[in-house]
Amino acid sequence: MNKSLTRSIGFWLLLVLSLASAGVGGWLIAGQVGTMTSTLLDGTATGIEVYVGQSLVVVGAALLGAGVLGILLAVALTAVQALMPSATPVVVEPIAWTAESDPAQEGDITNPETDITNPDTDITNTENDAQSADDEEISSDEKAQNGSSGSTATATKISVK
Question: In 10 A of CB 45, how many CB atoms?
Fold first, then answer.
């Protein structure tokens, strides 16, 4: 259970209605048994007081029993809640923004070997740049598929036979 019993409306309704039911049932039983006892001992009892009084005592007993059962259920729920281990809060550590490097700043660094203007190296550098761009696109597609249920071939629309 993730939330406390004291914050549950259902628990409080069970407890309050059980107490009310037990109270009303006890009041009915005590009132009717008292009336029947006094009228029967005085000799002034009528059929209505005796026979209707017995029926009201049975109704009161049912209400009292339901109230006691509800109270016992509320106590049992409280005991089960106390026995259940509470969820330990997850500690989230703050992100160290200074520890990470920005990928845009890494690409700004110039390499003196590739800045030399030589006709032979210009062609090779252009081919290397095109190849590295393709490699970056494939690796970004593979990263996007990391953890998904689709295959890389499906995600990149490659025909696999």
Answer: 16
